[in-house]
Amino acid sequence: MTKQNNKQKAPERFAVWFRSDFRLKDQAALYHAIETVKHKDGEWFAFFHLDPAFTDEIDTHHDYFFQTLNHFRDSCSGKGIHLHIVYGELTDTLERIRDHVSGWSTVYFNRDDAGRNSVRDQKAREWFDEHSIEYFDYEDAHIHAPEEIKKQDGSHYKVFTPYSKAWGKKHKPDMYNIDEDALAEYQADLQPIHKQSETFFEEDLLDRCSMNWQALGACHAKDRLETFMDERLAYYKDERDIPERAGTSRLSPYLKTGVLSPRQVFHSAAARREDAGSGAETYINELAWRDFYYMIHYFYPDSKQKEITDKYQSLDWNDSDERFQMWIEGRTGYPIVDAGMRQLNETGWMHNRLRMITASFLTKDFHIAWRKGEEYFQKKLIDYDQSSNIGGWQWAASVGTDAVPYFRVFNPTTQGKRFDPDGTFIRKYVPELKNVPAKYIHEPSKMPEGTQEESGCIIGRNYPEPAVDHSTQRKKAIAMFKGDD
Ligand code: FAD
């Protein structure tokens, strides 16, 4: 006999609101909900709020996100769990759920406390209060919450190194052990909350998500995590800056969508500390960067638009569309910059070293506002994370907290020579440079005419001249920051 048949009166119902935490293991809100449901002998149901703001134009970031959501929904179905999708404005969605689900008393969700998402969460909390729905929210997407790590005087850190020291000393949260057998057993037997929303998602929205992602979902994430930790972690410190090697974990899309939890990634690396030595320590420090930028975004909620350093809020950026387009398309005439942008456009991911180089180039060589680059990355990155992206851009543009000083401008040619010495990565993403001799791969415009012909790469026809002169642009950038412009 099912649990349902034993009930005399309408059971108390508990919702789990999934957002960017698509997993059934080690998920804070889900864990707490299920424990309560079992304790109170209630029922639970899962929903995802599909916001119309994200469904008109499907960029790469949302294509990946919705396909990950769909994959997760399918794996839930495989375990007998229905993830309800409800489309509409936030409060309309909540009203709809309340009308449909009798006995709904409580909702569990994982916090998203930075930037515009915190506004949505606040609106939701107010609605729950008004409608007497009890809510419980948890820190889940980060190892330490923004308020957890403060200076002795109670203020927040602005510089990463002391923050990371304090972060390193703090006890790390354990993983949540979810009773997976209870998930289907205690699930409320409901008709879809809003069938039209589910049809819209399944038939319209997914139809418009046309990219072919090879490695979606928990199984691939687990494989990638284990392979990286077993085979590459020990070399991470030495290889993480070489774009052509598999030197970094590439777990960022899974962390962004919540297919993997940061706790799982942390404990996996920490368990190998002895064997992987400085590789493990360097890797764990990157997870601290993720928390650091989240904390910074939490304390500077308008930093998507506004430079954190006040004195750089009115720099005289260049608004040339032509240059911006060259950067977007990877046609700047600087091979390492072009390779990075084309990797982003083709794959939805870019190596960290290249994110730094391309962001520096846009701001310091083209003098285009970092906000435009941040927005472009938002559309294209499958691991787009508001806080890390804003943090990375403000760092590269020298306008953020603990940013690269404005007078230390990356030289794109030297960066290329250093991190892609024989041009293997460049040749992969900029095929017109494929046969260019190693001697010229970072400065193809210096090729003699005969070499251009031999390598099938005529400068100005097959590959552009450098769009700007780096040393001139560097001086101008420094002058702009100094206010000598
Ligand atoms: P690994 O080197 O394997 O690192 C492991 C994890 O640590 C990453 O998955 C990520 O979660 C975290 N991490 C590593 N470096 C950083 C960092 N500098 N800041 C914050 N977290 C870090 N990261 C994003 O997740 N989303 C973004 O939208 C994003 N935008 C960026 C924009 C710019 C301009 C720059 C310079 C960096 C940006 N980063 C962003 C940080 C970093 O480039 C990526 O996290 C990293 O390249 C992801 O690849 P990985 O998983 O192989 O990283």
Fold and architecture overview:
The protein is α/β, with parallel strands linked by helices and 485 residues long. It folds into three domains: 11-140, 3-Layer(aba) Sandwich (Rossmann fold); 142-173 and 216-299, Serine Threonine Protein Phosphatase 5, Tetratricopeptide repeat (Alpha Horseshoe), CATH 1.25.40.80; 310-482, DNA Cyclobutane Dipyrimidine Photolyase, subunit A, domain 3, CATH 1.10.579. 50% of the residues lie in helices and 6% in strands. It has helices at residues 28-40, 60-78, 90-100, 115-130, 160-169, 180-185, 195-208, 218-232, 236-239, 252-257, 262-270, 273-299, 321-329, 335-347, 352-365, 370-380, 386-396, 412-419, 424-429, 449-454, 470-482; strands at 13-18, 43-50, 83-87, 104-110, 134-138. It has a five-stranded parallel sheet with strand order 3-2-1-4-5, sandwiched between helices. The termini are far apart. The protein binds flavin-adenine dinucleotide. Flavin-adenine dinucleotide binds next to helix 10, helix 12, helix 15 and helix 17.
Strand order of the largest sheet: 3-2-1-4-5
User: What is bound: which ligands?
Assistant: flavin-adenine dinucleotide
What gross morphology would you assign? Answer: globular
Distance between the termini: 79 Å
State the CATH topology of the largest domain: DNA Cyclobutane Dipyrimidine Photolyase, subunit A, domain 3
Beta-strand fraction estimate: 5-15%
What number of structural domains do the residues give? 3
Low-confidence stretches: 1-5
Provide the helix percentage: 40-55%
Strand tally is: 5
CATH architecture heading of the largest domain: Orthogonal Bundle
